[in-house]
Specification:
The structure holds 2 protein chains of 2 kinds. Chain A is built from 2 helices and 13 strands; from the N terminus they run H-E-E-E-E-E-E-H-E-E-E-E-E-E-E. Chain A is mostly beta strands. In chain A, strand 7 and strand 8 form a beta hairpin. Helices cover about 20% and strands about 45% of the residues of chain B. Classes of the chains: A mainly beta, B alpha+beta.
Chain lengths: ~210, ~220
């Protein structure tokens, strides 16, 4: 009985903390990905995208538009503006470098900026095509999961039944899941919705692609 | 803060009543047709007259956000409503839907199918902005030169007020705001809000209907 209570306690605690178990995955191989083996979304052929965006940040709701553009020097610029056109932030990702051009005072906190940087790196400047990745398979569905280590983080890219498009990304640190990204409704190789859900901080972002 | 900016944007729409008379020789636009206004006193009088007669205003609008560094323009369209004494509605319908209503001291926002209501009395900043809006609508803001410095221009079609924010908050974000009034009926035809970053937003109004009455139902978000 004591064992059962103790087990239940740990299950509850670990679930609440977003503990990341991947016992349902088996390692297949570790290698470089072939060209076009997976749809990296923001890399091959990507030019720009506009998203209707809703963000929940520490109890406050922000709405607006996120515009992402690949610049001629291969850097990415992300602008978040309100529907009225006022800029909330302007970030640049250039390989490993990250620059904040502007950020609204209310969200200009280190923890928020760092989190946003890590979130968008999962999509924009990930290491999937740059280094060897561990290819795993889900035991039941047999779908592929790509595991790549970036710094202290282990990132899992879950492929859908097409084995080309990602439907989920999980970023984990020290066994704990930090953020889950859900990607849905692919149209011409691009997801209509991209949702970031954080486990340890009150920050969720929902992107809904606007067809221009 | 976002809502503050939104409200600030709303403020500029009702800048119809604002004035402070200085004349500058340099046009704020790149359009050489704009010259310093010849008779600011007459413009002031006409604007006051229009403001007194104005009971409601409704129009379509096109908003163009110019991201200068990215060389991109993000366009959206919608419909705008204003009814005296102080009810406003911005309804974006393309390429996304988003509605903001200011009515009886309350701000309502419909976004992503959800309606959020904010009581302005609980927030000093919103209260202050609301007071300013009402002051503008009632003309008492005319002598307010603490928030903006104004310059006056005109060409064949438009009167142009160049408003430079001088109060904290707005001046940290906006370089200047240009308000274009149609000479035919003194209705606002265009707003240009220039940011310190070099980005700017144009809002162009069309199909304007003045004093044709707007049902109160329009301002009830459901």
């Amino acid at each position: 009985m004591k064992y059962l209570i103790l087990s239940s306690f740990f299950v509850i605690i670990f679930s609440a903390c977003g503990l990341s178990f991947h016992s349902n995955l088996r390692t297949e191989e570790c290698r470089f990905l072939n060209k076009n083996e997976v749809n990296t979304i923001f890399n091959d052929g990507f030019v720009k995208a506009l998203f209707k965006t809703n963000a929940h940040v520490y109890g406050k709701d922000f709405g607006g538009l996120i515009f992402i553009k690949l610049m001629p020097d291969n850097s990415y610029r992300i602008n978040f503006i309100t529907e009225f056109g006022m800029k909330i932030f302007d970030f640049e990702f250039k390989n490993e470098k990250f620059k904040v051009y502007s950020c609204l005072e209310q969200i200009n906190k280190k923890i928020i900026i760092n989190t946003l940087e890590k979130d968008f790196r999962l999509l924009l400047t990930n290491q999937l095509t740059k280094k060897k990745v561990k290819i795993l398979k889900e035991k039941k569905s047999n779908t592929k999961v790509l595991k790549v280590k970036e710094g202290k983080f282990k990132n899992y890219y879950f492929l859908d039944s097409t084995n080309v498009n990602f439907n989920k990304i999980e970023s984990c640190k020290n066994l704990f899941k930090k953020v889950t990204v859900d990607l849905k409704e692919y149209k011409q190789g691009f997801p209509k919705t991209i949702n970031f859900t954080h486990k340890n901080i009150d920050l969720d972002i929902r992107l809904n692609k606007i067809e221009q | 803060m976002k809502k503050y900016f939104k409200l600030s944007s709303v403020l500029f729409i009702v800048l119809i009543s604002l004035s402070s008379f200085t004349t500058e020789t340099n046009s704020p636009t790149n359009d050489p047709s704009f010259k310093p206004m010849a008779d600011t006193a007459a413009f002031h009088a006409k604007l006051n007259e229009m403001s007194k007669k104005l009971t409601s205003l409704e129009s379509d609008f096109v908003q163009e956000k110019n991201l200068s560094i990215l060389s991109e323009v993000i366009s959206s369209k919608g419909h705008f409503y204003f009814k005296k004494p102080g009810t406003l509605k911005w309804e974006y319908n393309n390429p996304f839907t988003y509605i903001i209503v200011i009515n009886n001291g309350k701000i309502s926002i419909k976004d992503d199918g959800k309606i959020n209501k904010i009581d302005m009395s609980a927030n000093k900043m919103f209260q202050e902005i609301n007071t300013k809006i009402l002051d503008m609508l009632q003309g008492s803001i005319l002598n307010n030169t603490t928030d903006f410095k104004f310059k006056f221009f005109e060409n064949e079609k438009f009167y142009l007020i160049d408003a430079t924010p001088i109060s904290k908050g707005m001046k940290d974000y906006f370089k200047t705001i240009n308000i274009y009034f149609d000479k035919k009926d003194l209705s606002v035809s265009k707003l240009k809000m220039m940011e310190l970053s070099g980005d700017y937003t144009d809002i162009i109004f069309s199909n304007k209907k003045q004093n044709q009455g707007i049902s109160n139902e329009v301002f009830n978000l459901k």
